[in-house]
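Chain A, query sequence.
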Amino acid sequence: MTEGQDVGGEGRHAGLRLPEGSWWDWDVVAWNAGQLRLAAGHDLTYHHGLELVFDDPVFVNCPSSFQDPVFRAPASSELLQLTRHLGAEPPVVVAFEADAGGREPVPCLVAAERLEIVRGTVLRYWRDDAAPGRRFAPWVRPPGRR
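Chain A, predicted structure.
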């Protein structure tokens, strides 16, 4: 997968493959009716380097933060359940198991109209000396601007 690549089309439910990198730590950085944005990196304290951007999510079952997800193709029973609930099979279905801090991995499922994989450093704190064009997480604002 390359930066900004859409996921879908033939074999769209075959299981998600991420670009090379250290994507151990994950969290939800934005979620509203139009978009679910999952961020990943090796340590989310200061920045993240990968985002899965789900446009028009129609089903979301995942914790707000998790580690070390193992992506897989959705089971036929999961696809059937989604189709029954939604009336049609969604264009994008991403399934994975992840460590959410419990004893067992948590099964996760996200269905949406579109998925885009975006690479690039996104800062999670304000820096006056940030390079031009540097992206900031949605909650980051310059001092004095809330």
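Residues 5-136 form one domain. The helical segments are 76-86.
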